[in-house]
Design goal:
Phosphatidylethanolamine-binding Protein, three-stranded antiparallel beta sheet, 8 strands
Length: 147
């Protein structure tokens, strides 16, 4: 499986529109070659460079298996989880000023739907995914703030 975005390439800066300094909208994402038997997709975006802990920016699960892209407004039937901003839905990069942070968008193809209600945490989703992951793909973007 391969994950990509029309907004940025792997390892490159995430455009300001998709951060707290812009419109804070989720970047468009697309994927190819999911494995046979995929029943749902899960997407997690986090920042391992955040002070103190890995910061969760987006949790989206139970995306329909027929979906191959997200454009920010259509979530592919997925259910959104809780972020470390203490809200449900996408929260864009918003690091403290200084060195740019890395943001990992991780897509998982699963052999089942996850039995979780809206608002589940990343930890809840990761527990529910155990033994269910058929394939995974990753896209990393960076973002830094000078002010």
């Amino acid at each position: 499986m391969k994950l990509s975005s029309s907004a940025f390439r792997d390892g490159n800066p995430i455009p300001v529109d998709h951060t707290c300094d812009g419109r804070d909208t989720a970047p468009p994402l697309a994927w190819t070659d999911p494995p046979a038997g995929t029943k749902s997709f899960t997407l997690i975006c986090d920042d391992p460079d955040a002070p103190g802990k890995t910061w969760v920016h987006w949790v989206l699960y139970n995306i329909r298996p027929t979906v191959a892209e997200l454009d920010g407004s259509d979530l592919g039937g997925g259910v959104q989880g809780m972020t470390d901003f203490r809200r449900v839905g996408y929260g864009g990069p918003c690091p403290p000023p200084g060195k740019p942070h890395r943001y990992f968008f991780k897509l998982y193809a699963l052999d089942a739907l996850l039995p979780l209600m809206a608002g589940a945490t990343k930890a809840d989703v990761e527990r529910a995914m155990q033994g269910r992951v058929l394939a995974e793909a990753q896209l990393m973007g960076t973002f830094g703030r000078s002010r």
